[in-house]
């Protein structure tokens, strides 16, 4: 994944969760300056940091509800659908 894509995902996650950069830097173990460079796409994460970011973004409590539904449909051996009753 390109550095700009990591940055966009991190920024969107941080904003969705209502976090400041300081909270995310503590979680990932990086400085605020480096986190800022990641979010702007001017720096790329190392392999170890990529693994920590991926683990953070994929925790069930950090994913959007629709992402869980998409994963369920993609991995389900049976036919799945989402219906709305009005």
UniProtKB/TrEMBL annotation:
Task: Please identify the protein, giving its name as recorded.
Answer: Helix-turn-helix transcriptional regulator
Pfam families the record matches: HTH_31
Residues annotated as domain HTH cro/C1-type: 10-64
Task: List the SMART domains.
Answer: HTH_XRE (SM00530)
Q: Which GO terms describe its molecular function?
A: DNA binding
Q: Which domain of life is it from?
A: Bacteria
**InterPro entries, per the entry:** Cro/C1-type_HTH, Lambda_DNA-bd_dom_sf
């Amino acid at each position: 994944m390109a550095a700009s894509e990591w940055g966009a995902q991190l920024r969107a996650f941080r904003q969705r969760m209502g976090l400041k950069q300081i909270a995310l830097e503590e979680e990932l173990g990086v400085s605020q300056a480096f986190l800022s460079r990641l979010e702007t796409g001017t720096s790329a994460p190392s392999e170890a940091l990529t693994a920590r970011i991926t683990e953070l973004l994929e925790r069930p409590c950090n994913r959007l509800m629709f992402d869980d539904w998409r994963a369920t449909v993609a991995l389900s051996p049976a036919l799945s659908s989402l219906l709305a009753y009005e």
